[in-house]
Amino acid sequence: MKNDKPTIISDTTPVDTNIIDNNCESYHGVRGSGDKKKTFTIRVYPFGDYQLRCQESCSKIIQDVYGINDLNKKTSNKTQIKNNSKANEELNNCFGHLGHCPLTTLKYINYGKSFLTDSLHTIYGGGFKRLMQLLFDRKYRKQEWSLFKKINHIDELLSHIKIPSTTQRRFRSIKLMSKFKASEFRTLFHFGIPIIVRCVPKQTQKMLLSFLTAINLASSEYITYETIDLVKELLYYFVEQYQNIFGLRHMTSNIHSLLHVSESLKYIGPLWMYSTFSYEGIDKDFINTVHGTVHFAKQLIRQHVLFRDAIVRHRNFSYPLSLFTFNEQLLNRKQSLVHYQTIIDG
């Protein structure tokens, strides 16, 4: 499975991107039939009250992980490691942790409260993407909640939607959903749900509309305590109905993480304030500044420092025009020399 950046930072397995509470359980299922019948075990997050992880509980988990890793290093026989049921059971109880999270070395880090809900990975490219897969993916076409047979009709309706000119990317046909970017899921979420709700049962309609309303409120310019409470209530309803409709099998970490959106609103503010949409593509620019394979980490750090300082200091009247223009091109912003002149005149 492809590693995702948040799992690398938190030092967890890719199938367990939620690292802030203890609501994870193991789900044992069966797929296929006859000779092709296979059993599988996945992690699921049942709807219900959750308890945020604290520093102490996370430290205990990491100690267990390191203890098991040391045990495996001392055991040279791979077959013996595989058959070590005690070690396997303990690893399973660690809920996907591989080791120490580097961020916990920061002075004011709090394992339960310092991880925010990112709208790109958790909402549009996470929970909503999973919801669309369940509704339109071919492998779920026999499920009673599937809209696979209505794809052509829904595509026809979606094609008539007028998207604002300020929208960066319009969504493509639902048939190409496997190739969607997160920005396409975002556009489909805000402009396509009113079309999709026409084709689903009443219970699913309420679920989708509660999701849409909650995220629109969470993305408002200003957030009040009343808004936070309403977002919490709407998303709790959505997650509960999601489990009732699609079953425990599909209660992934991204769906469960929606229950934490209200906490992010409370601690920091609206979702747009800490969304990673603005940073998509910058990592590629950094990689292009690295030359050779020697000391590439130091090169990246140096380029990051220069990049950051350029953004902070470019408003100074003595900042070179040529360097300002280069930075604007690097950020792929449509700024003009008039904007530069306005800055230095101001």
What attributes characterize this protein structure?
346 residues; mainly alpha; 3 domains
The helix fraction, in percent, is 40-55%
Range of strand content: under 5%
Give the strand line-up of the largest sheet: 1-2
Sheet/helix structural class: mainly alpha
Topology:
Blueprint: H1 5-10, E1 25-31, E2 38-44, H2 55-74, H3 78-82, H4 85-92, H5 119-136, H6 151-158, H7 182-196, H8 202-218, H9 225-246, H10 253-257, H11 261-267, H12 282-288, H13 296-313, H14 321-330, H15 337-345
Antiparallel strand pairs: 1-2
Helix pairs in contact: 5-7, 7-8, 8-9, 9-11
Characterize the structure shown.
This protein is mostly helical. The protein has helices at 5-10, 55-74, 78-82, 85-92, 119-136, 151-158, 182-196, 202-218, 225-246, 253-257, 261-267, 282-288, 296-313, 321-330, 337-345; strands at residues 25-31, 38-44. Strand 1 (25-31) and strand 2 (38-44) form a beta hairpin. Mean pLDDT is 79; it is low at 1-9, 14-20, 89-93 and 333-346.
Summarize the entry for a quick read.
The protein is mainly alpha-helical. It has three domains: 5-105, no CATH class; 119-274, no CATH class; 281-345, no CATH class.
